[in-house]
Amino acid sequence: MPVDELDTRILRLLIQQPRTSVREYARILGIARGTLQARLDRLEREGVITGTGPFLSPASLGHPVLAFVHVEVTQGHLDEVGDALAAVPEIVEAFSITGGGDLLTRVVARDNEHLEDVIQQLIRLPGVVRTRTEVALRERVPYRLLPLVQSIGRASRPSRASGGAGLPPR
To answer: How does DSSP assign 114-125, residue by residue?
Structure first.
């Protein structure tokens, strides 16, 4: 089932006020608590909502250096290298990619020396051919989904031209 206008209102509220109770969300949205809970359950079941935990700051945990490390892998060893990357705690994300390299990792470190140690650890993994590192200088756009949710909400509302109510966003 596609995400509809009510779903996007729910998602927007979850993003904007993540520590509010389900009862309060229902009150704000003007819907029954059971309706809200059913929607939340469906959004989780369909994989739209993938977690509810806190977002942590690696910098506040003593790892202020952020780098993106491209990893080139020997053909046929992508799965093994991917599994090995999962054992490196400083790798907070890894993706198979197209283009220059086979994997893209997001790595955090205490300082540049620590970053070099992590990169050396990656280079020694069986199946890793080479790495290329790009150090992030400053975050320009933080991870966010609210603009996407809002654009989906606008797209899911019926327009006045098509006979829909054309309700303003809440």
So the answer is: HHHHHHHHHHTS
What residue type is 66 in one-letter code? L
Alpha-carbon distances of 167 from 10, 150, 160, 163, rounded to whole Å: 16, 14, 9, 12
74-111 pLDDT, tens digit per residue, is 999 999 999 999 999 999 999 999 988 899 999 999 99
CA distances from 122 to 52, 101, 102 (A): 31, 14, 14
Structure tokens at 112: 């540049």
Q: Mind listing the pLDDT tens digit for each residue in 141-169? A: 999 999 999 898 777 666 555 444 443 34
Neighbour count for residue 74 (Cβ, 10 Å): 13
Q: Which residues contact 20 (CB under 8 A, 6 or more apart)?
A: 13, 28
C-alpha distances out from residue 69 to 32, 60, 129, 164, Å: 47, 21, 13, 48
